[in-house]
Amino acid sequence: MTALRPVSAVEALAAALRERVLSGDIEPGAALPEQELSARYGVARPTVREALAVLVHEGLLRRERNRSAYVPVVTAADLADLMYVRRPLEELMAEAVAGRRVAAAEAALDRLAGLPPDAPWADVVAEHMALHEALVAAAGSPRLDRLYGSLAAETRLGIVGLRHVYEDRHELTAEHAGLLRVIAEGTPEEARRAVGEHLRWRES
């Protein structure tokens, strides 16, 4: 029998705030004053402070001296630069993984496809990230894994901005199903080209 680990108030609050940030409920640039969060969630300010620190560490929030934590704004220029860095990393992955099925990525796709229409966008973000991270992990390079992981927070925040573009989530699922199919069945060059096309952010 596996014992369930109790969730602390800090973890619970961090999870609630994380979902709101990744669902777009808390808009980019919005501040998260400790006193307001304490009152809203009925927890002590030290609990709020610790929960915010968790999200700052994850890169989902930023904090500056004498200023409340806030959601960073990911601009079009930020996204362009993010893709500039992500593309060669994922192209390396594509060349390494081409001709193979990646079970963990397929499982993430299945979970993405199975999300109900009213699921929070944060769940979409989580499965999207799980799919791409599984592909990178399948390349078998710890350094590639670490480099890709360093971009995770900005990538997640960037995907938040796509929630209005993919109002029909089946379209997002279909795009990733096509990507996995090319990677599994194509040549390294075909897989590389498919990844390059996939990493073109659509305008919202």
TrEMBL record:
Domain HTH gntR-type: 7-74
UniProt keywords, alphabetically: DNA-binding, Transcription, Transcription regulation
UniProt xrefs under SUPFAM superfamilies: GntR ligand-binding domain-like, Winged helix' DNA-binding domain
Family annotation (InterPro entries): GntR_C, TF_FadR/GntR_C, Tscrpt_reg_HTH_GntR, WH-like_DNA-bd_sf, WH_DNA-bd_sf
Source organism, top-level taxon: Bacteria
Name by which UniProt lists this protein: GntR family transcriptional regulator
Organism: Microbispora corallina
Taxon lineage: Bacteria, Bacillati, Actinomycetota, Actinomycetes, Streptosporangiales
